[in-house]
Amino acid sequence: MASALVHYTAAAVTDRGRKRSSNEDAFGISVEHGVYLVCDGMGGAAAGEVASSMAVDEMLRLLTSRALAAPLNLAAEEAVRAANEAIFSRSQRNPKLRGMGTTLVGLLVEESRVLVLNIGDSRCYRLRNRTLEQLTADHSLVDELVRMGRMTPADALRSPLRNVITRALGTQKEVAPDIFEHQAEPGDLFLLCSDGLTRELPDSLIESLLAADSSLDELCSRLVSAANKAGGNDNVTCLLVRAA
Questions:
Q1: Cβ distance 46 to 22 under 8 Å?
Q2: Is there a domain that residue 1 lies in?
């Protein structure tokens, strides 16, 4: 399938959830340029909303204007660097925004080639042949402890340290994303989401919801509705990209 021509469609839904007074998540889509992004902002007052919106805007601006000859992975790294610098610089200039930052998960496609990039604990999944696979690794304290064998996955789910992330966009002068490369196959369904979804729903339920024969808009709405019914403790964003 690596040489097959693959086409993509996308949809997204974002919701503030049942407990938060505002929505600090943001997403961006450019099907034409093969760019799909979800960000989950953090910071006092409205700083989280500022950081996530800046990240999406800057990443979209750079990735949709890049020269086609530029290697995709280098373009991704440069866009992350520029977005990080823009957010960090603004936070340094405005004391009310000091310390703001955001997670980032992105899907960049060129025909069947797919790059997945992430910073923080927003995730990318792929549903292939009705089986769900997580394509990113969370940059969170509990997940790092699990990977080191110092905490069990069950303990991580109950840990009071679940909110501690170890990497974010805009909080430091420099940050590096994880970048994973895959080959898309017709029928693949990619999910980009903030932790407002994955904190509320187990992967098994996400898998069953995504396996339904429904439109992308309907699938996004069902995921968000299920997260809210399960507690809705955080903002929740779901972005789906289908390969055909």
A1: yes
A2: no
